[in-house]
TrEMBL record:
<dbReference type="InterPro" id="IPR035979">
    <property type="entry name" value="RBD_domain_sf"/>
</dbReference>
<dbReference type="InterPro" id="IPR000571">
    <property type="entry name" value="Znf_CCCH"/>
</dbReference>
<dbReference type="GO" id="GO:0004842">
    <property type="term" value="F:ubiquitin-protein transferase activity"/>
</dbReference>
<dbReference type="InterPro" id="IPR003954">
    <property type="entry name" value="RRM_euk-type"/>
</dbReference>
<protein>
    <submittedName>
        <fullName>Uncharacterized protein</fullName>
    </submittedName>
</protein>
<dbReference type="Pfam" id="PF14570">
    <property type="entry name" value="zf-RING_4"/>
</dbReference>
<dbReference type="InterPro" id="IPR039780">
    <property type="entry name" value="Mot2"/>
</dbReference>
<dbReference type="InterPro" id="IPR012677">
    <property type="entry name" value="Nucleotide-bd_a/b_plait_sf"/>
</dbReference>
<dbReference type="GO" id="GO:0016567">
    <property type="term" value="P:protein ubiquitination"/>
</dbReference>
<dbReference type="Pfam" id="PF00076">
    <property type="entry name" value="RRM_1"/>
</dbReference>
<dbReference type="InterPro" id="IPR001841">
    <property type="entry name" value="Znf_RING"/>
</dbReference>
<dbReference type="GO" id="GO:0046872">
    <property type="term" value="F:metal ion binding"/>
</dbReference>
<dbReference type="InterPro" id="IPR039515">
    <property type="entry name" value="NOT4_mRING-HC-C4C4"/>
</dbReference>
<dbReference type="GO" id="GO:0003723">
    <property type="term" value="F:RNA binding"/>
</dbReference>
<dbReference type="InterPro" id="IPR013083">
    <property type="entry name" value="Znf_RING/FYVE/PHD"/>
</dbReference>
<dbReference type="GO" id="GO:0030014">
    <property type="term" value="C:CCR4-NOT complex"/>
</dbReference>
<dbReference type="InterPro" id="IPR034261">
    <property type="entry name" value="CNOT4_RRM"/>
</dbReference>
Length: 255
């Protein structure tokens, strides 16, 4: 034992690491490092004699020593891994709790979700919009949700229009839709298409298991580059979509 409390080998005076400390070569308790123990074993084999403990001169049981050392090392590694995992989980829980309030105001762009505005009201029907002659032609449609402005009556008039969210099975299908639909003139109205956004599942934000197997809200942290606060979305929407008087609503899903 050195002055600073570190365990050292009594033969070579080198510090004994965790692996050395698991060796336990002799029942008398005299401990040496693995290098010195191997050296004693090798010298004994060369001289065709028994390898003995330098302290009590008891013959070493090589097989027993190696077996005990391996078992102890595995136990130490398992304990260290378990402790590290527990610390990581505690830190994750703490971060999630602190970030919960912020994440509830964050919206994440979904690369398989398309938001379209300017559609004539005679098409205001989910079943019609998912057909092959409409948005179904660009890929497999998982969900169609019409965006109805909150607090206003939605009337089908010749001058009115509406927005819709189309959820596709694949990202590339959404890209095809945006490329084909954006600025397309339908019944005299110019359509606008862009990626849609969604929010985090309320149950997930509360560290609870979501009970809705069809929930389309987020259950994992989205990428930072695709994440925006509601204020940022409103600001961008005001710059690009205000003339069309539609709300980029992201509360179209049910959880």
């Amino acid at each position: 034992m050195s002055d600073d409390g570190e365990r050292t080998c009594p033969l070579c005076a080198e510090e004994m690491d965790l692996t050395d400390q698991q060796l336990k070569p002799c029942k008398c308790g005299y401990e040496i490092c693995i290098w010195c123990w191997h050296h004693i074993i090798e010298m004994a084999e060369k001289e065709d004699t028994e390898a003995r403990c330098p302290a009590c001169r008891t013959p070493y049981d090589k097989d027993r020593v190696l077996k005990v050392a391996a078992a102890n090392s595995e136990r130490i590694i398992a304990e260290m891994y378990s402790e590290k995992k527990q610390k990581s989980q505690r830190a994750k829980t703490k971060i999630s709790a602190e970030a919960m309030k912020h994440l509830s105001t964050v919206r994440v762009m979904q690369k398989n979700l398309v938001y379209i505005t300017g559609l004539p009201t005679n098409l205001c029907d989910e079943n019609i919009l998912e057909r092959k002659e409409y948005f179904g032609q660009y890929g497999k449609v998982l969900k169609v949700s019409i965006s109805r402005p909150a607090g206003t009556s939605f009337q089908k008039t010749s001058n009115s229009a509406f927005g819709v969210y189309i959820t596709y099975a694949k990202d590339e299908e959404a890209v095809r839709c945006i490329q084909a639909v954006h600025n397309f003139v339908l019944e005299g109205k110019s359509l606008r298409a862009c990626y849609g956004t969604t929010k985090y599942c309320r149950a997930w934000l509360r560290n609870m298991t979501c009970s809705n197997p069809d929930c389309l809200y987020l259950h994992d942290i989205g990428s930072q580059e695709d994440s925006f606060t509601k204020d940022e979305i409103i600001s961008a929407y005001t710059r690009y979509f205000l003339p069309h008087t539609f709300c980029m609503c992201d509360d179209f899903l049910t959880c």
